[in-house]
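Fold these two proteins, one after the other.
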Amino acid sequence: MGEVYLARDTQLGRDVAVKVLPSTYSDDKERLHRFEQEACAASALNHPNILSIYDVGTHDGSPYVVSELLQGQTLRQRISGVALSPRRTIDFALQFAQGLAAAHEKGIVHRDLKPDNLFITNDGRVKILDFGLAKLTGAGNTELSQTSIPTRRVDTDPGKVMGTVGYMSPEQLKGREVDQRSDIFSFGTILYEMLSGRRAFHGESAAETMSAILKEDPTDLSETNQRISPALERLVNHCLEKNPEERFHSARDLAFALEALSGSSSGATQTQTVMVSATTQRWIRRHPIAGWIVAASVLLLAALAFIFLYFRRAPTAEATEATRFTIPLPEKAVTIGPPVISPDGRRLIFRLTTEDGKEFLWMRPLASLDAQPLAGTESGIQPFWSPDGRSIAFSSRGKLKRLDLSAGAPQTLCDAPSNVSGTWGTSGWILFSRGVADGLYRVPATGGTPERVTQVDASHNELEHTWPVFLPDGRHFLYLARNAQPENSAIYVGSLDSKETKRLLQAHSSAEYAPGYVLFVRENTLVAQGFDIARLEMKGDAFPIAEQVPRNPQNGRAMFSVSENGVLALRTGGLVQNELIWFDRAGKQLGEVTQPGSYSAPSFSADDKRVAVRRADPQTNNADIWLIDLERGVPIRFTTDLGIDNFPAWSPDGSRIAFISTRNGQTSIYQKSSSGAGAEEALITSAELKYNPQWSPDGRYIVYSQINATTNVDLLLLPLSGERKPQPFLQTNFIEAQGRFSPDGRWVAYISNETGQFEVYVQSFPATSGKVPISTGGGSQPQWRGDGRELYYYTPDRKLMAVEVNGEGSTFKVGVPRPLFNIRVVGAGIDQGFPGNGYYAPARDGKRFLVTTSPESPERQQINVVLNWTADLKR
């Protein structure tokens, strides 16, 4: 039909395909008008199994079509005269039928279906090509072989027909008006070829092939491939009926029959559907009495088959046993995020970090042996599916994005923190979290301005509302109200139509809804508890589903997801651990400081001889401060209370350590002698949540972050003498956090999200002049070199950056940021912004960095999949 070029869409930043047609198309205005009509009709088909059309037009007299760029091979190349397995055939055919059904429902008939117009992408997706364009093609070379005959115009009486010899329906060959049932016949010829490796209708010439289509039945599939079940063979024959009235009446019915076969055995004894072949019908017409008895029997069997198929669509209602298998990660994988199963239970999405530091979202069809990264999802985290499984949404670099899996590039929906969690409802809304100190917001799935839905209750120490999950009505939703004391965290149910919320149960875990149940993690065990969706109430007791399911002890994210039809995906074996490891400025590993564990927020003493670090216990949700003597390598537990202690900071003289603790039911700032002797003293105690205390070089102040119900998160100063009454240092309607004094005490480095993503700034102390931007393209966790002449920060793409600075004069001078090395951060729910886990600490001379990272060769992780998980509950 023309030439196809690889092109770049510079406006949307994506690769596309441009098909340029001969200029003769523009000479015939009627023909060009029909071409444009058909191309526009095809562009209206938004379905993951149909090639997406982006644009159509003319250039220098030549019409062109711009479409998505596909990577893979055509079905013709995939078959190459060799039969596919019944299982793979059904998988491809089901996708094919679903795409065809979407087109037919728009009133579009393809008319030229053949293996050359079906494309198999590298991740196992089927794409139908050239919708509607077949009517515009010209005559081909009649001397070409049957394996390479192109689309052609065939003159017949009483009319004309478009199609490819060998795949046209009888009514096409006769030049009659065709409808969607003609496509179903072509579908049958392709399905036959996939199963047998040869054409359904084949002659030495085009005329003989056309005669076979009109008068003959193809060789029985069971003679070519004994692995084909009778039910599958009957389905193919039903597509190939000569009379359109005797075929499937719609591609939707065909997809339904294929879906019923998709989970069945290929054994000859398993009959899933009942269809009457053309041979049987002819026999009935010749024997009317016996035929009536046979017809009645077939009708009864058909009714029974319909009932079976109806309940077969809900496998959890019929199957008696759960089926389990594991999915290993791709090679060179370092860490994996929580697996997220699609609503139909067929595909998995997960975040994957490779050894080279690259982080993408990957998709793995359960029926495939391979997972593939999704283009455009670099630095993407926390993915979630659309209700129809055709799209995903995810967070990336301060934006909430949407990716239609049939399209080429993600679409930005709105600004959002870098670590949002979300859910996509059937009502067309996306509900997402905005991080610490905030509730849930909603935004249309097409993008727009977010609207607040829930508000955190700071008076009860709520940290945030997170991990929302829509219920089937698309209006009600579950979410986790995370508390400063994890034992007080709870799962609630809310509504888009009301401010009222309802507490369902105590749990420091994300939750998922499956028909009749709510699933969550309690004490590292995945459990399911009955849920009355009409009354929005829990019922009965919780039952264990799987042991050792990891859950992030900080944000409550549990490593599992469940589909609507009973497919459960999870990780087991605990969260990936990290270590404190020395690196030089080039990223070369110099040595390990700790054994594997769960560490964060390292802080050096003034002489660089000791480091204070937070160490968490995932089993108890407890966290304490530990001190490590770097010369001896000996760790000592510094705090021993039952709360969560975090963010240690040494006093300038090294005699004391300040830290945050939740031990008294509030997030308070404490200090304690670094020798470990004596009592711990509360410096400030109040209901507001606090983070990241840091001393001024003269020891007179501590700067820290505090949540404010009105102004979000502010930087406050706590005087360490007199009344110790805190006062605002930086207070706006945005987040200001992670404040750190320069070594001379004249400047404070901090982060703010005023641009829509977190960036690093420097402000004079006291705040008498304007702020100075430091980072470009995102940054967090600023740290100073000991002499104050260099600043370091961490980027969303995991790079440790360095920038030369000079604050000796009245103005603060900044050099060009340059990357040092990639930090391979380990753990779930990584938050690039506030409050920040604290991934590194520079030595005073800036020549070494102590980083919380993974070992060089971490143990491979797996995703476990359970089909029909409710069968264990019933037993």
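Now the second one:
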Amino acid sequence: MFHLNEKTTIRTVTACLAVCILASAAFSCSDSVPPPRSAQDATKQENRPPAARIDNVVDEHWGVSVSDPYRYMENMEDDYVQEWFRQQADYSRSVIETIPGREELLARIRELDKNKQFRIGSIYRRPEGAMFYKKLNAGENIPKLYRVDAKTHKEELLVDPEKLKSPDGQHYSIGAYKPSPDGKYVVYGLAQGGSEETVYHIMETDTGKLLEETIDRVETAYNAPQWKSDSAGFFYSRRQNLPEGAPATDIYKNTKVHYHRLNTFTEEDLLIMAAGHSDRVFLSDVDFPSIHLPENSPFAILKIKHGDSNPLTLYTAPVKSLFDKDVPWLKICDVEHAVDDYAVFDTHIYLRSSHNAARYKIVRTNLAEPGFEKSECAIPEGDYVIDSVATTAEALYAGIIDDGYNRIIRSSYENPEPEVLELPGEAAGYVVCVSQQIDTPFIYTNSWTRGSRIYEYNPTDDTFTDTGLMPEGKFDNVPGFASKEVKVKSHDGVMVPLSIIYPENIKMDGTNPTLLIGYGSYGISIGVNFRAVRLAWLEKGGVIAYAHVRGGGEKGRGWHLAGQKTNKPNTWKDFIACAQYMISEGYTSKGRVAGQGGSAGGILIGRTITERPDLLRAALINVGCLDTVRAETTTNGVPNIAEFGTVKDEEEFRGLLEMSSYHKVEDGVAYPAVMLTHGINDPRVNPWMSGKMAARLQAATSSDRPVILRVDYEAGHGIGSRRDQRLEELADEWSFLLWQFEK
């Protein structure tokens, strides 16, 4: 929910499971499934899951024959496929509801989740003191949008999505939003059922009146709406309007940037950027362009995301020229400069770059005459990894990862020597709210075993004031639990960071229920975090550990590249090494250890159980990318080629085949118990990925351990799921694991 800034990059967006599962180990992505539709169905499914028919398709790539016995599942509109998914949903429900202790575990999780009176995130501050934010009160299911008046400090509810229902009864959630510079308007996105199919609405904040115009097909994964300084309108990115029957791979192509003037028809919106629109800017059909208007700067930034890859191409032009026929765009940096985050102050832009700096550096260049080659170093590469960059009215701030710990460094514009902030309670910290018009940033502190706070940092006297935006919770400081950071030798001698959370009185006798979690893609780092619901596992003598495997960003750009494309085996081999470490050190044993990964982390956990089926007792695969050979035929597949590869290149094809868990399942192998979860509205990883993997495992395994597919018909990839959905799923998952540990 918290954002480093409004232009959140790929590292925090592309794979939402890094937030939903990996950052919290508490919130996954799907929810309860429909009950059996008849007693006959329930009886039929009582003893085993419904078998899927085999209709093998064989493709040949680069002389290699690749079998696909469940290719037909890719047609999710097919009546047989729909019925099979519903039967799987019914079967999984029938299994889950018989698990001993599930209801008690759910009750405890719900109790712990009420830890804080409320949670606040996505904060925007205005210089006169007004604030906008999303807030989730205890007992509520969906965050709501609020405004705090600058004079009265009164909190006003602006948007309550719980009062909205789609025609088919699915819930709505608020996505990207942005208040206008004068605070009189707010544009916000609504999506239903976790689909991320977002529609922008515009509200007059004083009256609550909605303007008549709405905007659909908006692209919000990599940008938020950007208001003109006069609050007359805003810039936004929009996907193309596809004709009926267009292939799914075209949905994310040819994104365009428009300007919308308030109280006008959307069809009249001015085109600002698109492929072929400017002779000065090249856009491919899979690029995601967006406009960023920094506060108090005369310059606009054109950001170009090249699919889901990290390096950005950036241009700049005077804000006043954006409506000219020929906007004088000047290039700031290109892909070869390895810039993947930036912040602006006045006429300078600060670029986070791994160009000749594996752990990243921050350089700056003047927007009047920009160019990476002309840049000067603002913060040099150090022993730590620079993870983010942000600017306030008086200083530059950078988030860093220092030996696995999240810290913050500050560099004033007048005295640029970086200094590390000493945060309250020696906690980890993140910059969550900055403004180029305000001196004092908000700092979000965190710990593996202590509750979070949001402080306002005053650089004048180096003090931290609790904002009250993250109140102390009943379970924020429960004694008896500890954490440690260790390094584990992987298959090739590389040392892999591992974070372990455990009861202080732990006995290293191999009996502790252990959940090992990993991700390892896009350069995303798993930061230090706290969730009270985690106590439900720890109270049972359990251990939770996070494997910071290659493919992530914990040790810089090189760490990411070492788990990308043909290097992907390092990701799951690092995970296997961490599991072996937990066993060898006595934390757990093969009969009491489980693994979890979601989205791109499905590669990690799927290949762990197919390469080492003997290692884990059970596995959780959430919205997993499990058939990487067919991934680029999907909606989100083409933008991911830069991260995983393409079958059109022989070497990359072989890498894709090696990382494709579905194709590594072998008949007659004793696989561990597996729960696969998926939301049927998922726009990022198609549900058939989990369907094909579930069908293959169910048919192939020689063990008596269950393989179940938990389907949620009111969820997608996890973004926008209701609170009760997340808690129900967590209880299902953890009770499933504990049940298997006891068998």
